Amino acid sequence: MNTINRLIIATNIVSVTLLAASTSNAAAPIDISSPQIVHSKEAGQMEELAARELWRYLARVSGKPGTIMTDDAASPDRAAIVLLDVAGNNKLAAEIEKQEKIAVDVAALGDEGFRWKVVECRGKPALLLTAAKPVGVLYGTYALLEKIGVGFYLGGDTFPPAGSSLTVDASLDETHKPVFAIRGALPWGNLLNAAWDPDDLRQYYEQLAKQRFNFVGFHQYDIEPWCAYPWQGNLIGGNPLRTSSDKYFMTVRRLPTAQFGWGISDYYDRDPFTSRGRLEGKNREDQIRRSISLLADSMGHAHRLGLKVCLGFELFGDPTVPGVADHLEARIVAVLKNYPLLDYIWFFQNEEASRKGWDVPKGSEVERLIREEGETFAYLGNPKRIAEAVRFSYHFNMAYRIVKKHRPDLPIAINGWGGDRWLLFTDLFVGLDKTLPNDVIFASQDNIDPSIEPTVSKAYSRVSPQRVCWPIPWWNSDGGGSRGDMWAPQCNVKPFVPLCRDVLAKRCQGMIGVHWCTRDVEEVAGYQARFAWNPTLTYEEFYDDMAKRCFGARWGKTTGKILRDLDSLGPRWTGSRGQPTELGFSLSKFGYPPPKKENLQKLADIRRQLTDIRREMLADRQLEGLERIEWFLTTIDWVTRFDDAVVRLHVTGPVEKLLREAETAHAAGNAGLAKQKAQAAWEEMQKCGLKEALQTYPRKMSTIGEFGSMASIQTKVYASYLDLRDRVQKILGPLGDDLAGPPVPPGTPPFMVGRQPKSLLESGRELSVSAVVIGSEPITSCVLRYRPIGADAWKDVPMTNTFRRTYAAEIPAADVTLEARGIEWFVEARDQAGRAAHWPKGYPSVVWSATIVPSQPRE
Q1: Residues 20-75: tens digit of each pLDDT
Q2: 158 and 71 in contact (C-beta within 8 Å)?
Q3: pLDDT digits (tens, 9 = 90+) for 808-859
Q4: Above 90 in pLDDT, residue 703?
Q5: Is 770 helix (H, G, I), strand (E, B) or coil?
Q6: Among 7, 202, 642, 855, which has the minimal tally of Cβ within 10 Å of its Cβ?
Q7: Which CATH architecture fits 182-449+461-470?
Q8: Tell me: the pLDDT tens digits for 650-666?
Q9: Nearest to 852 by CA among 770, 809, 790, 784
Q10: How many whole angstroms separate alpha carbon 444 and alpha carbon 428?
């Protein structure tokens, strides 16, 4: 018997005639809503995870939990069977293989591919899912769940309505394998959007793996903590994670969350905004070490899900200077020691180095190296760029030798800022292909704006055929080309269609996406994930499928067109340029060119359509898509209100004009005119709409990325408003307390906001649940309700008001057991008027749920 893994689903339906291993096309669909899941006694962690995940999702939709058993206790006479086989140890799998004479081409499936095929199991139809490796079983399971209507995105899972038919065709026979060996993400961690706590990072990994990504890579600047290293008794090469109270990346003001304006502080559960590790650290070194532990501890969770983890830092400066090699070795040794589960390490050229080149210090050893090796890079033409190519080649080879000395098995990659039109690191590839070892992987953040350059660098098709290449296009804007925004949806799906095809045409072995935002890039991330398994996927097919999953079949056609219309509007949807989070903010620059009238009209039309659909969902109690409908409505309100406010505050607008006139009059000693103009400016500021815009955004926050973006908005946009306000106060005197909350208008019913929870829980460990409850009236009760999946009764745990408007409670460790297999929960809050709010949105059609898995050791 082949040493492969098999997932077999057998159902107790009317007997049909089978020809060889095929089921007649006329046979009834196979119901897989409540199976008995059977795995070998020898099953590994990943097969068990596949079984438990399949069990939870099917029970979540059908309301009829199946069972999980080992092969020695399985009863094939039961109505439904799910069978996992590893290395021929599963008795039922062996029996089916022998009877059906199923030939499985293991080599064709590869490490991650799988096959679905309806077969016969002891006289009954069955669905066989075959994979060559355990991870193939896991991917086949998630793909099967997608096939029956579940959706997986960075913004969370989507579900078909409860009680939906969960069947597969009796004629099903499909094989799936990825076209890229490496598929994943590079979440950039230098901004407030990356203030991860352990559960944030784990939830992010889970959403990647469900989309059958298999890679996550991280870059570190020296201002970040993860690649710090000990040197002469101190930790250097890294610093604690930044906070909203720090001055960095051109913030206008340092602001603790208590000073966030117009009640926005109520949405935050800490002060200042940053990770818990940074807040709880006793000193600088403790803060750094806590951050290192966070990443190191998360890697076991990544591996559980089939994700490979990569980490690295930049190589800059003259590598021939005495002492550089010693520092480099100390740093690499620290990284390898701190992260024993690391799967890859990569080394970056520093940003813009390839485009600008390098001024070689007179008398430097590099001058000799250029004379000896410069000819390899002579095609670059510019002497400074040739010098930089030689410098990086020498520096990387030094790092390569150190890594191989300490961990010979670890794959190594280069990375940098590339693209044929922007920062040009990939220009070095043809030469580096000759100067670097053959096993070095070539990766690069490619052209910043795919709408201008919908291909990856030409260099990928010019290096040696055996060279492994991983282009990294930008899911997120970085302020280049036509895209200048990080605070709104990124609208990149259409240009990514030819981009993905180009990566495949250039025979690259991997494709990764770089991003800062989370929810705002879920569409382009979702397309790239699905293209890797279905390279014929079209733009229209992707959005039609996503709409059906997110909003339901009834509204799928309408919302599919809406999603395409929104994507076609481009960055921010409004037509204004927006704001790169890592750049400075100025009310004299933001938003220009201003919003386009045709875009605003289109958004108004779309908003009316979405409002009608929302009304229909509420009337019919089909609430599975409610959260996403309201997310889109809120996002439309956010971008339109914000752009309108900023245009009013722009240097060409009435506020700046009146303020300048007031300041001129004040300087001239005309106090009366100065106060008149300043008062008029102040009145314009109060009606500009910025308060209403900023109070809109938090309703769409659901991951750490959005909480971080709002923190950046506060330290830049709101801070700029404070600067204007200070100018008014210099003339009018104190203006009173117009900056405090509440964060909502009077009469607002309660609602809840929280970060999406992880969906894998380790047995024997409590689950902390927290959410923010916002409303215009005092909250009189907040309760966490939970139960094992399949149980009738909910258990209630009163939640405590722990910080501002945050409420928290725990599901006890005693109830998080492997025997329970899964758990579900929701939060209910009521105000003094008796009005209720629930989290997640869409209750009772939607509740949070998680699979319980064996615990892993932690430091």
Answers
A1: 333 334 578 888 998 888 788 888 999 999 999 999 999 999 999 998 888 888 77
A2: no
A3: 999 999 999 999 999 999 999 999 999 999 999 999 999 999 999 999 875 4
A4: yes
A5: strand
A6: 855
A7: Alpha-Beta Barrel (3.20)
A8: 888 899 999 999 999 99
A9: 790
A10: 11
**Averaged pLDDT, 234-242:** 96
Whether 301 and 205 have beta carbons less than 8 Å apart is answered as yes
Higher pLDDT, 105 or 55: 55
- Find how far residue 177's CA is from the centre of its chain: 23
Structure confidence at residue 589 (pLDDT)? 58
Inter-residue contact 532 to 180 (CB < 8 Å): yes
Q: What would the DSSP string read from start to end of 192-235?
A: GGG---HHHHHHHHHHHHHTT--EEEEEE-TTSSTT-EEETTEE
pLDDT band at 103 (very low <50, low <70, confident <90, very high): low
Q: Beta strands of 362-504 (E only): which ranges?
A: 412-415, 441-445, 469-472
Strands 848-853 and 760-762, by their bridges, are: parallel
DSSP 3-state of 783:
strand
**Structure-block tokens of residue 12:** 């107790």
The single residue listed with the structure tokens 């230098």 is 190
Quote the CA–CA distance of 76 and 38 in Å, as a whole number.
Answer: 10
Count the Cβ atoms, other than its own, within 10 Å of residue 732. 15
Which pTM was predicted?
Answer: 0.95
Q: Is 78 in contact with 86 (CB distance < 8 Å)?
A: no
474 contacts 451 by C-beta, under 8 angstroms: no
Beta bridge partners of 167: 31
* Owner of token pair 């190519």: 389
- 441-445 and 412-415: which strand pairing? parallel
Phi and psi, residue 829, nearest 5°: -125, 150
Integer-rounded Cα radius of gyration of the chain: 28
C-alpha 395/C-alpha 416 separation (Å) is 14
3-state secondary structure of 837: strand
- Beta pairing class for 173-176 and 156-158: unpaired
pLDDT at 128: 82
Residue 387 dihedral angles phi and psi, to the nearest 5°: -60, -40
Residue in this structure with the two tokens 């043809």, named with its chain if needed: 430
Which one has a higher pLDDT value, 450 or 773?
773
DSSP state of 29: P
What residue ranges do the domains of the chain occupy?
Answer: 5-176, 182-449+461-470, 560-732, 751-853
CATH of domain 751-853: 2.60.40.10
Among candidates 454, 450, 456, 529, which has minimal Cα distance to 490?
450
Vertex 468, ends 463 and 470: CA angle to 5°? 100
Label each residue of 136-152 as H, E or C. HHHHHHHHHHHHCCCEE
What Å distances lie between residue 616 and 92, 448, 552, 559, CA to CA? 48, 40, 12, 13
Return the CATH number of the domain spanning residue range 5-176.
3.30.379.10
8 Å CB contact between 493 and 487? no
CB 504 within 8 A of CB 535: yes
DSSP letter string, 285-316 = HHHHHHHHHHHHHHHHHHHHTT-EEEEEEEE-
Distances (CA, A) of 121 to 29, 38, 358: 16, 14, 68
Distance CA 621, CA 605 (A): 24
Separation CA 457–CA 447 (nearest Å): 7
Strands 767-774 and 80-85: unpaired
328, two tokens = 């480099």
